[in-house]
């Protein structure tokens, strides 16, 4: 997980749930505990993590980690929390709980994108494929509003893009319109380029047209490089 809290210390129950492995040994990184839980350990800790997620008195960073864990474990409650946060991103209680090291920007929604995307391996066991799609769609709808950077790729697996193509295309169109008016503090152009490249594999005609529209609003070097690599036709005059 991204560099997030500096001197932040988890509460006792968050430390027990996400900073202690399933053998009872202290863990430095909650990602390790979350990954270990995929083998079935999630059953032991999910209910307690739901209590953390829902507790307004819990530290926001602890609630965020609970959401990440539940989402990665393909739990309905985790997906529902992602959808709620995406409806009103600026008021999400955990905004600012995680920052990327490179740009110093909030990347909480990027971390959630990874959790939603990577949970594909759990949805059959949990019976939550529909809820995962809903969470992915909610995040894709934010693509023009918040930083994802390359985390957006977690939502651009072919099966997700095929199922959610209208959300992808609408998000790109909103993002291009925004770039035509302003340059956000994060690399919106790259996010849009990654979405266009993924959509191009499903709808080549739309993808090429969108790529050219994005290039026309000067999205930045990373975006242009991504588009040229993914859609060589954009190199043609």
Automatic annotation (TrEMBL):
Q: What is this protein called?
A: Uncharacterized protein
Q: Which organism is it from?
A: Streptomyces plumbiresistens
